[in-house]
């Protein structure tokens, strides 16, 4: 999978891909992540990529021309399955969406900034708009990093134990059950006996029951999806 991220602040995005699971995925050659500085695609003085909005109002808007140049350059080199715009008014990211995106080959992610992008960018180039929650960030960079982390870990070969991702919270619309590790007893608090029994069919039944109970208590909305 190849992911191209377009941003006006590339420094924010470098760190997440230089450690842990994402770095291992890149080092293994399973995924490529390329960060593009939008300012490299403008002819304006001082590398300007934003301007005041027509009609007045607070906040600057990213201009269409440099975004068009960047996306067009990338598309001239390969075909893309999706051109994603990170925006708080997009469709809220969930595990089902992540599962679908993990099957794609080439993706462009455009990070909004300031007051957003010229609407014509959204009309002409964007195929999917995604939000990571009902709140506003300074830009789409952190949202893009969250999206990449969520998607990349689902690609076969990225995790050492691929079944781990299949038992994550939100898979099958359930929260994950409680998990424990050594010691079996700590300051009087014991691990449930069933987990120490070695009876794996019963353990799986217990986990399914606990996942359902936790979901019913904390996120009953998931059971209705």
Tell me about this structure.
- The protein has helices at residues 11-14, 20-27, 64-75, 95-101, 119-124, 141-152, 163-166, 193-196, 200-218; strands at 2-7, 32-37, 50-52, 60-62, 82-92, 106-111, 128-131, 185-186, 189-190.
- With 225 residues, the protein is an alpha/beta fold.
- Strands 2-1-6-5-7 form a 5-stranded parallel beta sheet. It has a two-stranded antiparallel ribbon with strand order 3-4.
- A hairpin with a 7-residue loop joins strand 3 and strand 4.
- The longest helix has 19 residues, at 200-218.
- It is elongated, with a radius of gyration of 21 Å.
- The model has no long low-confidence stretch (mean pLDDT 94).
Q: Any chance you could write out the topology, listing elements then pairs?
A:
Layout: E1 2-7, H1 11-14, H2 20-27, E2 32-37, E3 50-52, E4 60-62, H3 64-75, E5 82-92, H4 95-101, E6 106-111, H5 119-124, E7 128-131, H6 141-152, H7 163-166, E8 185-186, E9 189-190, H8 193-196, H9 200-218
Parallel strand pairs: 1-2, 1-6, 5-6, 5-7
Antiparallel strand pairs: 3-4, 8-9
Task: Summarize the entry for a quick read.
With 225 residues, the protein is of the alpha/beta class. The chain has 9 helices and 9 strands. Helix 4 (95-101) links the parallel strand 5 (82-92) and strand 6.
Report the span from N to C terminus: 29 Å
Overall mean pLDDT stands at 94
Residue fraction in strands: 15-25%
* Series of secondary-structure elements, N-terminal to C-terminal: EHHEEEHEHEHEHHEEHH
Structural class: alpha/beta
- Fraction of helical residues: 25-40%
Question: Nearest-angstrom radius of gyration?
Answer: 21 Å
């Amino acid at each position: 999978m190849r992911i191209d991220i377009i941003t006006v602040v590339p420094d924010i995005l470098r760190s997440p891909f230089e450690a842990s699971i994402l770095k291992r995925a890149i080092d293994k050659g399973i995924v490529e992540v390329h960060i593009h500085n939008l300012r490299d695609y403008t002819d304006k003085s001082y590398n300007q990529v934003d301007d005041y909005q027509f009609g007045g109002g607070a906040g600057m808007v990213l201009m269409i021309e440099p975004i068009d140049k960047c996306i067009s350059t990338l598309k001239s080199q390969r075909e893309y399955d999706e051109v994603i715009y990170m925006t708080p008014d997009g469709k809220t990211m969930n595990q089902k969406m992540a599962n679908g995106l993990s099957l794609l080959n080439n993706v462009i992610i455009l990070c909004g900034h300031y007051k957003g992008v010229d609407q014509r960018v959204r009309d002409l180039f964007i195929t999917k708009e995604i939000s990571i929650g009902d709140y506003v960030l300074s830009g789409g960079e952190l949202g893009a990093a969250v999206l990449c982390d969520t998607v990349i870990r689902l690609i076969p070969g990225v995790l050492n134990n691929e079944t781990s991702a299949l038992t994550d919270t939100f898979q099958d619309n359930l929260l994950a059950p409680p998990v424990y590790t050594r010691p079996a007893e700590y300051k009087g608090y014991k691990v449930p006996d069933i987990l120490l029994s070695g009876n794996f069919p019963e353990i799986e039944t217990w986990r399914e029951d606990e996942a359902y109970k936790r979901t019913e208590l904390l996120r009953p909305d998931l059971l209705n999806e």
